[in-house]
Amino acid sequence: MGNHLLHERGRWLLHAVQIELLSVGWIAAEAALSAVAAHQSGSLSLSAISMDSAIELISGMILVVRLWIELQTGQVRISKRAEQVASALVSGLLFLLAAYIAIRAGEDLRTHASIEFTPLGLAITAASSVITPWFAVQKRRMGRVLCSTSLMGDAACNVVCTYMSWIVLADLGLHYLFGWWFVDPIAALFLLYFIVREGLHAAEGIKTGQHVHHH
Question: What are the UniProt keywords, alphabetically (predicted)?
Fold first, then answer.
């Protein structure tokens, strides 16, 4: 019975690693395509999504390594020091991103900056609004089976990213339909709330050495 349970856990761990690798691949694609769309349109909210996704890659890759180590060795945790360094890096980058968004949004509101519509931006945010919640469901299911707080935290992170995608999707849609110049900087300021929360959560990991995924 014990061997059967170990085999089942190994099977779920392998599935979790596969889902996480797909997730990291999607995040990388989202970061790159959002950056291209942001360059084409001049959209601050798309820039924010792109940079947030790039930062999220760090914590995503840590979780892949962590799950792989458990799959291969049975060890649940990687180095606490490595977790703390990653948390400090992610936290610092997120706070820098928050400062950039706040300054840029204020400038865009002051100058009435407008953006250009880009089909790529609409497509990537629409895809993210569907794909990211699917990842959240899968990770939550595996987190419960494996009793993994890291996977549950990653699922929660995907839920937050879904909210962010919906905000940007609404931003681009309203701009396309009505041409409202002020929607983009306001949407970016809404994203600011989530990014600061991510930064604060990552900062907690500097002291605790726990996984840096955002909630």
Answer: Cytoplasmic vesicle, Endosome, Membrane, Synapse, Transmembrane, Transmembrane helix, Zinc
Q: CATH no. for residue 62?
A: 1.20.1510
Q: Count of residues for the chain?
A: 215
Cα separation, 86 vs 60, whole angstroms: 11
Average pLDDT along the chain: 87
CA atoms within a 13 Å half-sphere pointing along the CA-CB vector of 47:
18
Residue 105 domain flag: yes
Contacts of 119 (CB under 8 A, 6+ apart): none
Give how far Cα 113 sits from Cα of 12, 16, 41, 49, 179, Å: 49, 43, 11, 19, 12
The per-residue pLDDT for range 8-42, each reduced to its tens digit, is 778 888 999 999 999 999 999 999 999 999 999 99
Q: Is residue 215 part of a domain?
A: no
pTM summary value: 0.86
Residue 213 resides in a domain: no
Distance CA 33, CA 43 (A): 13
Tokens of 140: 């939550």
How far, CA to CA in Å, does 24 sit from each of 28, 31, 58, 109, 212? 6, 10, 9, 34, 15
Return the ∠ at Cα 198 (arms to 103 and 169), rounded to 5°.
Answer: 70
